[in-house]
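[step 3/7] fold_predict: job queued, chain A
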Amino acid sequence: MKKNSIVLIIGLMSLALIGVLAMQFYFLRDSYRQKSQLFDESVNAALTAVAGKLERREVVDFAKVQQERNIEKSKQEQAKQQQLTEQLQLQTQIENLRGKLEQIYQKYKLEEDRLKATYPNIINIENWFYETYVKRTQYQDLVEINIVKTPTSGLYYQEDVIVSATKTIPRIEAKDDSTRFLIVHIDDFKRLLGKSIVALPPRSNPKLSKRIFELETKLNKLSKKNAGYGFNVYDSVAMLGGKKADYIEDVAIGMELAKRPLKDRLNIIIVQELLKEELIHRDIKAPFNIEIWSTSNILLNNILNEAELNNPINTTKYSTALFKGDVGAAPGKLTIYFPNKKAIIADNMSYLLLPMLTLLFLLVGCFAYTLIIIFRQKKVSEMKTDFINNMTHEFKTPVATIMIASESLKDPDINADHKRVQKLANIIYDENVRLGNHIERVLDLAKLEKETLKLDREDVHINDLVAAVTDSMQLRMQNIGGKFSVDLAATKDIVVGDELHFSNVFYNLMDNAIKYSKGDLHVNIGSKNIGDNIVITIADNGIGMSRDHLQKIFDQFYRIPTGNVHNVKGFGLGLSYVQDILRRLNGRITVKSEKDKGTTFEVILPVKK
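[step 4/7] structure written:
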């Protein structure tokens, strides 16, 4: 693979990785924004609910106080006390039921606001219209949706979506009290693309409303029965304030309650418990801090978790007015803020973050692994190219020698000389043997790679084998002026293996010692027993090698680079063959070397027990 192609692949993969990172960042940022918005809506809804509960609680508490006063004043009217108590019980039940209705409406309102925020083109339809036209498929074609433009000030128009029926058919009354909305899908050209129906829970509970009506009817009867005596809760306040009973529900209680200081109207413990309850109901369990303000002055600053308070000035605060039912402006404001809001939202997004990070690391790992494979294959390709060049050179020499000798045999003068013919024949034979050895080495390596090489399992005397290989190498050693020093001291030298391939192993190691020699070569060959192993050492004082090459010399086709000098022949297969054979025969090989000081190979084999 060319360098430009590799650069192009790396560039495209890097661009794709950056694109994925950018998309994940955008998705996380958008998800965080949505979670933050939902968090804000939930907190504001909780504050509104708490403010309503506090106001209702105050009314009930104040009613109880007024009841106690009326009881004290009415000790002599024992007959009326029972009726007053009944009125108070009825009023308390009514207030509790109204509180439940308010909770139902607030829940419905929250769902409705979310639905309207999600679908701008939403229309409330009556349940009878849904049952008559929408639900029955045969009459759905009668439903007509129009966009009506109503002129406003200036040149502007207000667009409204109107749902009607093109034909009047007998009405089917509503079967439930749920609230239904028609969601209209319109494109940018005001064309209707489709519609869908969404149903929300009822705004109210008919059973609760009926029960409130019954209790109010009963309370009104008692009030009329006791008119003029001031034993009704609101009548009692009217007596104290000099007002008529008709104004009590809207004015009198509000005025009486508003006269008290805000600090006396609140209990911080109750406020905390109500806030916790409402927030937990909305799946918010994080610590928060409370502030209660009266006009512009702070009355209370209660820090529930001071350890996590971090610069409240830059923290988002949520506020709601307290006692909004008072006459005039609201007397106070309840504020809360979360010191660790970002951590809360991030924790809610953890189910998204963990898989995304896992996929990101997987993608980066695949990218890195691909680069490693590309560079490894490029290196292998270069090494194979060098191997082919070396192999061509090694094959070319004996082939050329054989060709010259063959041509010489065609010469009649040479052909007549029997000695010269014999010499040329020997040359051709030797070169054929040399060529066959080269081919055999390449084929053996191919068999090793395919796991098809068959090895014998027989007893081999390693000392004798090493001595025989050393003797066969003596002639080459004498030609270069070197010498062997042999000390085969191992007493246990029988190993189980293939004698032929063991011979090739030691031949390769001694051949390398001779090929990579300098000056006065001296090779020390020894054996010794260490535990249940025999260790054969082949140490030379040749050119050695640097530490960078030690880990690579057992790789296929690898040869220590020598620039443009090719005075040492070989394919780069010898040591790879040695390591593979020893591994298959339960042995191993180690190497130590220093540049210009020599190399030591140790072959470690298990002896036969």
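[step 5/7] annotate
Residues 454-606 form a domain with the Heat Shock Protein 90 fold (CATH 3.30.565.10).
Residues 3-73 form the longest helix (71 residues).
exit 0
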